[in-house]
Amino acid sequence: MAKTFDKITPARFAGLMKTEGRTNDGPGFYLQVSRIKTASGEPGNLTASNLFKFTLGGKRREMGLGKVIRYEDLVKGRERAAAARDLVYDRVDPIEQRRKDRATKLAETPTLMTFEDAFKGFLRDKRREWSNAVHAAQWETTMRDYALPVLGKISVAAIDTQLVLRCIKPIWESRTETAKRVRGRIEAVLSWCTAHKLRSGPNPAEWKNHLSNILAKPSKLVKVKSHPAMDYDDVPGFVAKLVELDTQAARAIRLLILTATRLNELRFARWDEVDLDGRMWVIPAERTKRDREHPLAEAPDRLALSLPRRVHTTQADGRPEPARAPARGGWEGADPARLSRQLLLVDGGAHQLPDSGARGCARACGRARQERRG
Q1: What is the pTM of this model?
Q2: Which fold has domain 115-221?
Q3: Fold that domain 10-108 belongs to in CATH
Q4: What is the pLDDT of residues 101-116, one digit of tens each?
Q5: In what helix (H) or strand (E) does residue 129 lie, and over which residues does it extend?
Q6: Measured on CA atoms in the order 287, 275, 296, 262, is the torsion positive or negative?
Q7: Dist CA 281 CA 305 (whole Å)
């Protein structure tokens, strides 16, 4: 009985590869050897491929099943021909089915995008969430200095744990807080990429159960130090200094202490936020750190009235223009932060309170009032 499948033996294969022609190896399956034509039209080298011929719906078609160099390639071709035969038996065109499979795979494959381009896209989508311009600038600065030099030109689909470590490990112990932020920002950008189907799989910058197993805990590397704070027993003397100065900045700090608000919330306050008759100052959500409206009952009306009713202009980025200090300088400046740094000296001037020192004073005043009432 004549052999129907796998007619070409390894010994016969070597001879067939030296001669042009088609040799049947099974039902509809052929080894095809042809000569390539050069650009000048002259005959070139021989090349071989697997070929499957079938008839479906009255149409005869030929389907290539891959290049042949070794006998193993012919064996793989037999497997592909068997799968194609099954499709023809089910009245499915194997050529069209292959096109659909390739299109599906292409759609599921992440689009190539560099980390730098992904970062730009992330900024475009998320910048509106950041009401603080300084925070947005820090994002760009840290990524430019630490992430983009390593990851910038690399496809986001190819970024792995080792590449992330190259960004943060050199500064993990020396600049721990910065390294933490860089790691979190890389993680956020890669998560954005995953949501846009630009990459798949776990996030290589994730801390929990991943980088936490590789890097030391930040809390073990750097001990958190709180800013020095004024003792509330010293607050009356500090307020007395402010009353004695009686400048615009001094009055602003007194109002800051009495309302316990944040410095920028006071500096950029607008008169249309203040209801003097109702003794109420309502800070709109867009000017608060928590992005929600902050009502302050019983705002000290005499102090508020003593502050200048200046016209607020707007900068290009939409933020109000900060107050300007007069040219003569000195204590007459309109910058409460500068005045507070000059007044609030701790340990004989060795350290200075931060700009938010007045908030600490306000809390201290509140505790003192509670103790007196008690």
Answers
A1: 0.46
A2: DNA polymerase; domain 1 (1.10.150)
A3: Double Stranded RNA Binding Domain (3.30.160)
A4: 887 776 666 567 999 9
A5: none
A6: positive
A7: 12
